[in-house]
């Protein structure tokens, strides 16, 4: 579609710039060369559905691509640096291929970076109630297989997925596909939350980056004032984060401006962009005399 072409051209621009920067540094185009250019694709509500539709086939293809030796699995490639979908309005069935592939793979290396972040508020009534009501009306005469079985490599068990329910439920509210829950560390009023400064953000990133590399199933990673808790059935460093968000962080469908959410997304962008924490320090913090 046209959106896919536009986004692909933007990614091509980024790759071209990255190549020029790396050549100027005499580092070639390998993974050890980190450019300052970033491509973050963000979609909200039906915009999230449009972004997902435009990129899902690209993400599926890049999941199975490998640059590792025969018989080994390399890190999963994404689109740009990170794709972020907030309260996306599309059915979980459309996410099934990515969920199945990532769930059936039980191990991701310490170098695996986040690829896709889906944030859905537990208090988002538009996708929690209105969306499934509309899907029920539009699919009432549809017939199909009611369930499919997949292997969860993290738990070592078989999971049965209700396809009819997945066809009516928005992806962020479909519990079998959920990998995380995001909640505030403390009960804090929004108006008292202060935006983090540059130095604080960089220090936070160093801590968050180390935590991500040492991630485990069922982990609790601190991102400043919020905690990201991975479910026990999600493999460590699974690059697709389907995240239920506490209502105190995102209180509704259009409430996306909490400073804690902004900082969390910023930190995940940094994790998805930098493998070398020292390079971020050098680029963002002034050298001490």
Question: Can you give a write-up of this model?
Answer:
- The longest helix has 23 residues, at 2-24.
- The chain is an alpha/beta fold and 289 residues long.
- 33% of the residues are buried.
- The strands form two sheets. It has a seven-stranded mixed sheet, with helices on both faces. The protein has a two-stranded antiparallel ribbon with strand order 4-5.
- It contains eight helices and nine strands.
- Helices cover 38% and strands 17% of the residues.
- Helix 6 (198-213) packs across helix 7 (259-273).
Concise synopsis of the structure shown:
This protein has helices at residues 2-24, 46-64, 96-104, 125-139, 163-166, 198-213, 259-273, 277-284; strands at 40-44, 82-86, 116-121, 147-152, 157-162, 180-184, 220-223, 226-230, 240-245.
Rounded mean pLDDT score? 89
| Strand order, largest beta sheet | 1-2-3-9-6-8-7
Strand content: 15-25%
- Summarize the helix and strand pattern as letters: HEHEHEHEEHEHEEEHH
Low-confidence stretches: none
Largest sheet: 7 strands, mixed
Structural class: alpha/beta
Q: Helicity level, as a percent range?
A: 25-40%
The counted number of beta strands is: 9
Determine the N-to-C terminus distance: 53 Å
Shape: globular
- Report the C-alpha radius of gyration, rounded: 19 Å
Number of helices: 8
Key features of this structure:
single chain; 289 residues; alpha/beta; seven-stranded mixed sheet; two-stranded antiparallel ribbon; 8 helices; 9 strands; globular
């Amino acid at each position: 579609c046209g959106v896919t072409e536009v986004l692909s051209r933007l990614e091509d621009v980024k790759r071209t710039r990255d190549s020029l920067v790396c050549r100027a540094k005499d580092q070639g185009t390998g993974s050890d060369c980190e450019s300052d250019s970033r491509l973050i694709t963000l979609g909200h509500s039906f915009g999230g559905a449009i972004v997902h539709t435009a990129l899902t086939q690209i993400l599926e293809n890049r999941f199975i691509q490998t640059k590792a030796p025969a018989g080994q699995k390399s890190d999963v490639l994404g689109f740009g640096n990170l794709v972020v979908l907030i309260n996306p309005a599309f059915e979980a069935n459309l996410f099934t291929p990515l969920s199945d592939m990532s769930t059936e793979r039980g191990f991701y290396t310490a170098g695996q970076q986040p690829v896709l972040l889906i944030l859905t508020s537990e208090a988002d009534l538009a996708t929690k109630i209105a969306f499934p009501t509309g899907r029920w009306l539009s699919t009432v005469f549809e017939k199909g297989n009611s369930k499919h079985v997949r292997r969860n490599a993290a738990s070592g068990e078989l999971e049965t997925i209700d396809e009819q329910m997945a066809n009516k439920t928005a992806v962020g509210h479909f519990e079998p596909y959920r990998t995380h829950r995001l909640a505030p560390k403390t009960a804090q009023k929004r108006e008292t939350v202060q935006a983090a400064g540059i130095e604080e953000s960089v220090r936070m990133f160093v801590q968050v980056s180390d935590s991500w590399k040492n991630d485990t199933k069922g982990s609790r990673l601190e991102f400043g004032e919020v905690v990201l808790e991975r479910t026990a059935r999600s493999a460590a460093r699974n690059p697709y984060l389907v995240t239920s968000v506490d209502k105190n962080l995102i209180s509704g469908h259009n409430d996306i401006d909490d400073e804690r959410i902004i900082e969390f997304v910023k930190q995940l962008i940094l994790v998805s962009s930098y493998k070398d924490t020292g390079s971020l320090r050098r680029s963002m913090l002034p050298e001490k005399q």
